[in-house]
């Protein structure tokens, strides 16, 4: 073990001469060095280090000032109670002062950087001091790599506020954002080269996916994670990448939400703290989601899980409303499991199993969105386009509505099993969709039948109103047969089913035609509502719509012809009155014209669908000649 000579300790404290340890000290592995008796005790927290003044003051400006400001020139003890990183950080810094090799790692570089600032170990007191060495390691090793930067940023959480004061946190966050956007651009260029390969350069696929570093964010605290995502979004990172990062973070931080620990008493302080922590996480993640749109990159399953967590943790109303609107915008992408949202009070025997109020709002958002689109599109539709059918089964909007109608029928069948569900809420859901949303009403009928079976004590008025939500003309033959014998249905419903079934059979015997009801004949449908014949329900629906359009055009032509005939009638009558006011031939002629007029009247003609045609002119009265 080497010995520090007297010449090395002689220079004054205020001098700038650097302490140069002997070669044996530089390679020493034993700590602390005990060959020379200690002349300074440094207290760091509960620990005391027996050190030497000169090695410390040669590199630390803070220790130098403490010794200079001391009243006693022979001070032998100083206290450093708030060293960033505590005892471990000071020990590494002291070793560095003694010239012992200190290895920089991802786990200690942030701590050493903060400690160097706290002890003022700058270039002013020694060359290649601890601050410069730690900055070099950050610049060369940490900042170019996203996972390394995230790891160091995680270490900074325990070093606040010092890591904030030296701007280390912001530097790391900006490095993450810049590298993420740079990697995104590089990935795009690689894909472009793969699509349009050059002759001299072979095609290259990225070895790792562009979001390979996304899971590294799971180690960050919520505050740091929120700051990183906000900066990354402002830098222009793609929304689908942000969605994946949010999903990974939520999966790691929200596991077990809604599942209570049996060892934690419900309503206790610990339970309330856990719920509060989870609530803050949910609200923060929702606030970081990409912009709301129908083509949002956020998967429906993730939105549904967030809504379930928001309800379980009693999140704020704006948070739940935001999620409900996002789900409503993408409702045609949902499956049954996505909308089975449990209530918050599952342990209460008098509460419902599922939150039907939230689902009612979600479906209303979807339907109102379609109405808004219709209003916007009406302002730009030309009259020449009025013949086109934008609600045909093949159109995107109509197919989305049909998907949503099937989803709602499945949901109704599921919640109908809940004996605590009020009839008023079930009726509100059953009456929610417009008439054109369902091609077949078998799914709704099944859900209503289940609800009536589970709720036998319903009022007659509620039972009748619920049955009215079913369109009997859209029931398959099997469903009609079941409904006609169903004692749970009101008598009016059974009579209506028999009436439409009789009309359907009559039309089938007569070979069909334009007199059949809209959706009135489904000989090909099975009990499930799926087409079992050669003609599918969608094809049948489309053909009926085409016939309806053709009939409307024919009505318009006949209306124009009728208008011309009535004009000719009036003009001829006026001419005959002027020339032969008392001629009997005129009277017989007017009678024949009146019969001809009655022949062409089309007030009784109705387009398929049952809606009467309104004429833009009033019905004319016959005028007596006398």
From TrEMBL:
Keywords for the protein's UniProt record, in alphabetical order: Coiled coil, Phosphoprotein, Ubl conjugation pathway
Membrane topology, as annotated: Peripheral membrane protein
Involved pathway(s): Protein modification; protein ubiquitination
Major subcellular location class: membrane
Organism: Clitoria ternatea
Coiled-coil regions, chain positions: 541-575
All residue ranges annotated as the BTB domain in the record: 38-106
Protein name, per record: Phototropic-responsive NPH3 family protein
Entry's Gene Ontology cellular component terms: endomembrane system
InterPro entries: BTB/POZ_dom (IPR000210), NPH3/RPT2-like (IPR043454), NPH3_dom (IPR027356), SKP1/BTB/POZ_sf (IPR011333)
Higher taxonomy: Eukaryota, Viridiplantae, Streptophyta, Embryophyta, Tracheophyta
Pfam families linked: BTB (PF00651), NPH3 (PF03000)
Compartments where found: Endomembrane system
Highest taxon listed in the record's lineage: Eukaryota
Domain NPH3: 211-504
Family: Belongs to the NPH3 family.
């Amino acid at each position: 073990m080497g010995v520090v000579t007297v010449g090395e300790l002689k220079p004054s404290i205020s001098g700038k001469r650097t302490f140069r340890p002997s070669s044996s000290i530089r390679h020493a592995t034993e700590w602390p060095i005990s060959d020379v008796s200690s002349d300074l005790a440094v207290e760091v927290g509960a620990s005391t280090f027996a050190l030497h003044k000169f090695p410390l003051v040669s590199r630390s400006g803070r220790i130098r000032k403490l010794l200079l400001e001391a009243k006693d020139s022979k001070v032998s003890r100083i206290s450093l109670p708030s060293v960033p990183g505590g005892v471990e950080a000071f020990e590494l810094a002291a070793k560095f002062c003694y010239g012992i090799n200190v290895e920089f790692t991802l786990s200690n570089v942030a701590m050493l950087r903060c400690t160097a600032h706290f002890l003022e170990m700058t270039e002013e007191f020694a060359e290649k001091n601890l601050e410069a060495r730690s900055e070099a390691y950050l610049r060369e090793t940490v900042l170019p790599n996203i996972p390394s930067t995230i790891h160091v940023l995680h270490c900074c959480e325990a070093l606040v506020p010092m890591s904030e004061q030296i701007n280390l946190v912001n530097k790391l966050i900006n490095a993450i954002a810049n590298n993420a956007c740079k990697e995104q651009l590089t990935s795009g260029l690689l894909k472009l080269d793969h699509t349009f390969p050059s002759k001299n350069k072979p095609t290259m696929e990225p070895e790792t996916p562009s979001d390979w570093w996304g899971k590294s964010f799971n180690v960050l605290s919520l505050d740091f994670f929120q700051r990183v995502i906000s900066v990354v979004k402002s830098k222009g990172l793609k929304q689908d990448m942000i969605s994946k990062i949010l999903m990974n973070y939520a999966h790691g931080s929200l596991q077990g939400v809604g599942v209570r620990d049996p060892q934690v008493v419900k309503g206790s302080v610990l339970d309330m703290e856990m719920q509060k922590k989870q609530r803050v996480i949910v609200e923060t993640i929702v606030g970081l989601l990409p912009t709301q749109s129908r083509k949002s990159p956020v998967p429906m399953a993730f939105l549904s899980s967030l809504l379930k967590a928001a309800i379980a943790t009693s999140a704020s109303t704006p948070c739940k409303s935001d999620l409900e609107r996002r789900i409503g915008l993408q409702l045609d992408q949902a499956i049954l499991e996505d909308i089975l949202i449990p209530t918050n009070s599952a342990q209460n025997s008098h509460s419902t199993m599922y939150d039907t109020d939230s689902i009612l709002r979600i479906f209303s958002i979807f339907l109102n969105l379609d109405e808004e689109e219709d209003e916007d599109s009406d302002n730009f539709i030309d009259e020449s386009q009025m013949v086109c059918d934008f609600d045909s089964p093949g159109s995107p909007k109509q197919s989305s509505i049909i998907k949503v109608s099937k989803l709602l029928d499945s949901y109704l069948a599921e919640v109908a099993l809940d004996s605590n569900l009020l009839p008023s809420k079930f009726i509100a859901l059953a009456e929610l969709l417009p008439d054109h949303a369902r091609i077949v009403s078998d799914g709704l009928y099944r859900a209503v039948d289940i609800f009536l079976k589970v709720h036998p004590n319903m009022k007659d008025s509620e039972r009748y109103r619920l049955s009215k939500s079913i369109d009997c003309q859209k029931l398959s033959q099997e469903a009609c047969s079941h409904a006609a014998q169903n004692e749970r249905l009101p008598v009016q419903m059974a009579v209506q089913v028999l009436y439409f079934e009789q009309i359907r059979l009559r039309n089938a015997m007569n070979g069909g035609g334009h007199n059949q009801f809209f959706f009135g004949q489904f000989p090909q449908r099975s009990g499930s509502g799926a087409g079992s014949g050669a003609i599918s329900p969608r094809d049948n629906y489309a053909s009926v719509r085409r016939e309806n359009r053709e009939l409307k055009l024919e009505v318009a032509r006949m209306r124009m012809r009728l208008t011309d005939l009535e004009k000719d009638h009036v003009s001829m009558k006026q001419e005959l009155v002027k020339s032969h006011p008392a001629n009997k031939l005129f009277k017989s002629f007017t009678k024949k014209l009146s019969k001809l007029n009655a022949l062409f009247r089309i007030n009784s003609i109705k387009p398929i669908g049952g809606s009467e045609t309104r004429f833009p002119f009033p019905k004319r009265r016959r005028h007596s000649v006398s």
